[in-house]
Design brief:
Blueprint: E1 5-11, H1 18-30, E2 36-43, H2 49-59, E3 63-68, H3 74-84, E4 89-92, H4 101-108, E5 116-121, H5 129-146, E6 158-160, H6 161-166, H7 176-186, E7 191-196, H8 200-204, H9 211-240
Helix pairs in contact: 1-4, 7-9
Protein backbone atom coordinates (compact mmCIF):
# COMPACT_ATOMS: atom_id res chain seq x y z
CA UNK A 1 0.00 0.00 0.00
CA UNK A 2 1.32 3.46 -0.91
CA UNK A 3 1.96 5.74 2.05
CA UNK A 4 1.56 9.50 2.16
CA UNK A 5 3.75 11.64 4.40
CA UNK A 6 3.46 14.88 6.37
CA UNK A 7 6.84 16.38 7.26
CA UNK A 8 6.87 18.78 10.21
CA UNK A 9 9.57 21.45 10.27
CA UNK A 10 9.43 23.38 13.56
CA UNK A 11 11.42 26.59 13.37
CA UNK A 12 12.55 28.98 16.09
CA UNK A 13 14.76 31.77 14.77
CA UNK A 14 15.94 29.69 11.81
CA UNK A 15 15.98 32.53 9.27
CA UNK A 16 19.40 31.46 8.00
CA UNK A 17 18.78 27.72 7.57
CA UNK A 18 15.04 27.22 7.04
CA UNK A 19 14.96 27.61 3.27
CA UNK A 20 17.85 25.16 2.76
CA UNK A 21 16.12 22.68 5.07
CA UNK A 22 12.82 22.83 3.21
CA UNK A 23 14.38 22.65 -0.25
CA UNK A 24 16.44 19.64 0.81
CA UNK A 25 13.32 17.94 2.18
CA UNK A 26 11.39 18.53 -1.04
CA UNK A 27 14.20 16.81 -2.99
CA UNK A 28 14.56 13.89 -0.59
CA UNK A 29 10.89 13.16 0.08
CA UNK A 30 9.94 13.43 -3.59
CA UNK A 31 12.39 10.61 -4.27
CA UNK A 32 10.64 8.16 -1.95
CA UNK A 33 7.03 9.33 -1.64
CA UNK A 34 4.76 10.87 -4.28
CA UNK A 35 2.09 12.17 -1.89
CA UNK A 36 3.61 14.46 0.73
CA UNK A 37 3.37 17.85 2.38
CA UNK A 38 5.72 19.98 4.46
CA UNK A 39 4.32 21.87 7.43
CA UNK A 40 6.46 24.67 8.84
CA UNK A 41 5.55 25.65 12.38
CA UNK A 42 7.03 29.05 13.16
CA UNK A 43 7.38 28.78 16.93
CA UNK A 44 7.28 32.45 17.89
CA UNK A 45 10.47 33.43 16.05
CA UNK A 46 11.76 36.98 16.55
CA UNK A 47 13.91 37.12 13.40
CA UNK A 48 12.93 36.76 9.74
CA UNK A 49 11.87 33.11 9.98
CA UNK A 50 8.21 33.96 9.41
CA UNK A 51 8.97 35.84 6.21
CA UNK A 52 11.10 32.97 4.88
CA UNK A 53 8.36 30.47 5.71
CA UNK A 54 5.68 32.59 4.03
CA UNK A 55 7.77 32.95 0.90
CA UNK A 56 8.35 29.20 0.73
CA UNK A 57 4.63 28.50 1.12
CA UNK A 58 3.86 30.98 -1.64
CA UNK A 59 6.33 29.45 -4.10
CA UNK A 60 6.18 25.76 -3.13
CA UNK A 61 2.71 24.16 -3.42
CA UNK A 62 3.58 21.35 -1.00
CA UNK A 63 4.54 23.75 1.80
CA UNK A 64 2.17 25.16 4.43
CA UNK A 65 2.89 27.48 7.35
CA UNK A 66 1.42 27.46 10.85
CA UNK A 67 2.22 30.27 13.30
CA UNK A 68 2.55 29.98 17.07
CA UNK A 69 1.86 33.43 18.52
CA UNK A 70 4.68 32.90 21.01
CA UNK A 71 7.40 30.34 21.62
CA UNK A 72 5.64 27.19 22.84
CA UNK A 73 8.36 24.55 22.60
CA UNK A 74 9.14 21.58 20.38
CA UNK A 75 6.57 19.25 21.91
CA UNK A 76 3.77 21.75 21.40
CA UNK A 77 4.81 22.36 17.80
CA UNK A 78 4.94 18.60 17.24
CA UNK A 79 1.43 18.12 18.61
CA UNK A 80 0.13 21.02 16.56
CA UNK A 81 1.78 19.64 13.44
CA UNK A 82 0.05 16.30 13.99
CA UNK A 83 -3.32 18.03 14.20
CA UNK A 84 -2.64 20.07 11.07
CA UNK A 85 -1.32 17.13 9.03
CA UNK A 86 -3.36 15.59 6.22
CA UNK A 87 -1.30 12.53 5.27
CA UNK A 88 -1.16 8.96 6.59
CA UNK A 89 2.31 9.16 8.16
CA UNK A 90 4.16 11.86 10.05
CA UNK A 91 7.80 12.75 10.69
CA UNK A 92 9.52 15.68 12.39
CA UNK A 93 12.73 17.15 10.95
CA UNK A 94 14.51 20.10 12.66
CA UNK A 95 14.48 23.39 10.79
CA UNK A 96 18.21 24.09 11.22
CA UNK A 97 19.39 22.04 8.21
CA UNK A 98 21.47 19.66 10.34
CA UNK A 99 20.38 16.28 9.00
CA UNK A 100 22.37 14.86 6.05
CA UNK A 101 20.24 14.43 2.94
CA UNK A 102 21.26 10.79 2.45
CA UNK A 103 20.39 9.94 6.06
CA UNK A 104 16.89 11.37 5.77
CA UNK A 105 16.35 9.46 2.54
CA UNK A 106 17.53 6.19 4.08
CA UNK A 107 15.10 6.55 6.98
CA UNK A 108 12.16 7.35 4.71
CA UNK A 109 12.91 4.42 2.41
CA UNK A 110 12.04 2.11 5.31
CA UNK A 111 8.47 3.41 5.51
CA UNK A 112 6.10 0.45 5.39
CA UNK A 113 8.62 -2.06 6.75
CA UNK A 114 7.16 -1.55 10.23
CA UNK A 115 4.51 0.60 11.89
CA UNK A 116 7.22 2.91 13.20
CA UNK A 117 10.56 3.75 11.59
CA UNK A 118 13.08 5.25 13.99
CA UNK A 119 16.79 5.96 13.71
CA UNK A 120 20.11 5.96 15.54
CA UNK A 121 23.55 7.33 14.74
CA UNK A 122 26.13 4.99 13.25
CA UNK A 123 28.82 7.54 14.17
CA UNK A 124 27.97 8.50 17.78
CA UNK A 125 31.61 9.43 18.34
CA UNK A 126 30.96 12.79 16.64
CA UNK A 127 29.06 13.87 19.74
CA UNK A 128 31.57 15.65 21.89
CA UNK A 129 32.56 14.51 25.39
CA UNK A 130 29.85 15.24 27.93
CA UNK A 131 27.06 15.30 25.33
CA UNK A 132 27.94 11.74 24.30
CA UNK A 133 27.97 10.57 27.92
CA UNK A 134 24.55 12.12 28.57
CA UNK A 135 23.11 10.56 25.41
CA UNK A 136 24.37 7.10 26.36
CA UNK A 137 23.14 7.45 29.94
CA UNK A 138 19.71 8.59 28.75
CA UNK A 139 19.29 5.63 26.42
CA UNK A 140 20.56 3.18 29.04
CA UNK A 141 18.19 4.58 31.68
CA UNK A 142 15.12 4.36 29.45
CA UNK A 143 15.97 0.83 28.37
CA UNK A 144 16.37 -0.23 32.01
CA UNK A 145 13.15 1.45 33.15
CA UNK A 146 11.00 0.05 30.36
CA UNK A 147 12.70 -3.30 29.75
CA UNK A 148 13.82 -2.46 26.21
CA UNK A 149 16.91 -2.72 24.02
CA UNK A 150 16.53 0.35 21.85
CA UNK A 151 19.65 1.95 20.39
CA UNK A 152 18.29 5.50 20.66
CA UNK A 153 15.10 7.34 21.61
CA UNK A 154 15.63 10.75 19.99
CA UNK A 155 16.21 9.93 16.33
CA UNK A 156 14.09 10.94 13.36
CA UNK A 157 10.98 8.76 13.56
CA UNK A 158 8.08 8.12 11.18
CA UNK A 159 4.72 7.28 12.79
CA UNK A 160 1.22 6.53 11.56
CA UNK A 161 -0.59 9.84 12.06
CA UNK A 162 -3.67 8.09 13.43
CA UNK A 163 -1.62 6.69 16.31
CA UNK A 164 -0.27 10.16 17.13
CA UNK A 165 -3.82 11.50 17.25
CA UNK A 166 -4.98 8.79 19.64
CA UNK A 167 -1.86 8.90 21.87
CA UNK A 168 -0.80 12.57 21.77
CA UNK A 169 2.30 13.90 23.49
CA UNK A 170 1.81 15.45 26.91
CA UNK A 171 5.04 17.46 27.15
CA UNK A 172 6.03 20.60 25.26
CA UNK A 173 9.76 20.01 25.85
CA UNK A 174 12.47 17.82 24.32
CA UNK A 175 11.17 14.68 26.03
CA UNK A 176 8.31 14.36 23.52
CA UNK A 177 10.38 12.10 21.26
CA UNK A 178 11.02 9.45 23.89
CA UNK A 179 7.46 9.75 25.17
CA UNK A 180 6.06 9.10 21.70
CA UNK A 181 8.31 6.13 20.97
CA UNK A 182 7.63 4.54 24.36
CA UNK A 183 3.88 4.91 23.85
CA UNK A 184 4.14 3.34 20.40
CA UNK A 185 6.02 0.33 21.75
CA UNK A 186 3.56 0.07 24.63
CA UNK A 187 0.67 0.08 22.13
CA UNK A 188 2.17 -2.91 20.34
CA UNK A 189 3.29 -1.11 17.18
CA UNK A 190 6.13 -2.79 15.30
CA UNK A 191 9.36 -0.79 15.17
CA UNK A 192 12.36 -0.87 12.84
CA UNK A 193 15.58 0.93 13.79
CA UNK A 194 17.62 2.39 10.94
CA UNK A 195 21.28 3.25 11.44
CA UNK A 196 22.42 6.44 9.66
CA UNK A 197 25.34 8.85 10.02
CA UNK A 198 24.68 12.22 11.62
CA UNK A 199 26.40 15.49 10.80
CA UNK A 200 29.48 16.19 12.93
CA UNK A 201 29.09 19.98 12.96
CA UNK A 202 25.41 19.66 13.88
CA UNK A 203 26.19 17.30 16.73
CA UNK A 204 28.63 19.83 18.14
CA UNK A 205 26.25 22.81 18.03
CA UNK A 206 23.10 21.07 19.26
CA UNK A 207 21.00 23.25 21.58
CA UNK A 208 19.31 20.34 23.32
CA UNK A 209 21.66 20.17 26.31
CA UNK A 210 20.67 22.71 28.96
CA UNK A 211 19.48 22.56 32.57
CA UNK A 212 15.96 23.57 31.55
CA UNK A 213 15.77 20.84 28.92
CA UNK A 214 17.30 18.29 31.29
CA UNK A 215 14.65 18.98 33.94
CA UNK A 216 11.87 18.89 31.34
CA UNK A 217 13.05 15.54 29.98
CA UNK A 218 13.43 14.10 33.50
CA UNK A 219 9.85 15.10 34.31
CA UNK A 220 8.61 13.49 31.08
CA UNK A 221 10.45 10.23 31.82
CA UNK A 222 8.95 10.07 35.31
CA UNK A 223 5.39 10.79 34.16
CA UNK A 224 5.66 8.35 31.25
CA UNK A 225 7.05 5.63 33.51
CA UNK A 226 4.21 6.24 35.94
CA UNK A 227 1.58 6.08 33.20
CA UNK A 228 2.93 3.05 31.36
CA UNK A 229 4.33 0.96 34.20
CA UNK A 230 3.21 1.97 37.69
CA UNK A 231 -0.39 3.14 37.12
CA UNK A 232 -1.14 0.26 34.78
CA UNK A 233 0.29 -2.28 37.21
CA UNK A 234 -1.89 -0.83 39.97
CA UNK A 235 -4.95 -1.01 37.71
CA UNK A 236 -4.25 -4.65 36.80
CA UNK A 237 -3.74 -5.51 40.46
CA UNK A 238 -7.05 -3.88 41.35
CA UNK A 239 -8.84 -5.78 38.59
CA UNK A 240 -7.35 -9.01 39.85
CA UNK A 241 -8.77 -8.36 43.30
CA UNK A 242 -12.36 -7.88 42.11
Amino acid sequence: MAHSLSVLVPALNEERDLEATVRQLIRVVAGVCEDFEIIIVNDGSTDGTGAVATRLARTQPRVRVVENLRNMGLGYSYARGVREARKSHFVYVPGDNTWPEDSIGEILRHMGKADVVTSYATNPEVRVGFRRVISTAYTTTLNALFGLRMRYFNGLSVYPRQFLLTRPVTTWGFGFQAETLLKAIDAGLSVVEVGVPIDEAAARRSRALSLRNFLSVAKTVITTFWALRVARRRMLTSVGQL
